[in-house]
């Protein structure tokens, strides 16, 4: 057997093991006419006629002007890929988000990897919520930071620690901070000589819960009063749907001056692609010099820059506010329908579990031990939802994730809940027939 065939055989064994654990992934296409309860395009901006028309008009203007970078930028930002459009856009977005400066990346993943891999220095420590995005973990793996320590998800104060977080499990942010300050060398953190980076998300994409950001900043400032506690907020899922005109959770809470950096992702509510780091001028300059995901990649082409510009202009003008209002009503309605169904059927926990707490974001997790079966049934009935399984979520928390959008209708919400109900009833009937 050739070396290549040996490698294929070895790789196939890994794939077979993943299939046996029901963790195999594959690419699929969404059938036309399927109701979308899966994508992250919460505001459905691509369905807005004015947004589409403005984008196409500006693209056509650029084509008529024989813009050389229309199809591609031609290089990285440090070579030939920079443009007046990119620099103007960065200044506009920094001003809109009340930040000193900003820097564009090809994706929020690139932004996170670039930021976490190069900024923390060898004596620094990164503390991170145990449920932060994979891109943050990738950045931390490349980081020179002395340690990366997790804390229990959205658990800030030591008095809040959940009984489930016992020995070997993440503890509260305060407990981790106090432990760091109490160990040998902790005085260097107390004095401000070494930095502690604290990584959280505005909205967590799997559970749809909102970060207790005020408590986070209060805790950090209490134990690190020298200003060396540097909070980083990933706002990929809060941009566009939180804050005045969609500025994000940090702005909604008025914490712009207390959060060291924000990572914005344009692939969710903004309906386009790309990422942005909001930061100080010095941090921006440092990233330009050291962030490998910026230095060694071809910069975004003009169509991407125009799409970001158009989406932001629509949001800045207040055009998205009716969409946000509609979206919140749809989420509330869908959750009520789910709760009514859940209370009526009282299904066993392995089939279905729904949180009683009203969602604060566009995401409603529906927990089940059989996510592939439930998702497949919904898809067969014209509703696109996806199964979410380990390792994307911790084992035992498998689910389908309902992502609602401004373009969804009340009838579609009724339909998806009815489909879930039909699946639950069929599974309960199968269980009864086996008794």
UniProtKB/TrEMBL annotation:
Its cofactor is pyridoxal 5'-phosphate. It comes from the Eukaryota. Residues 36-414 form the Aminotransferase class I/classII large domain. The keyword Disulfide bond does not apply. The keyword Transferase applies. It holds the Pfam family Aminotran_1_2. Keywords: Pyridoxal phosphate, Transferase. Belongs to the class-II pyridoxal-phosphate-dependent aminotransferase family. BioF subfamily. This is Aminotransferase class I/classII large domain-containing protein. It comes from Podospora pseudopauciseta.
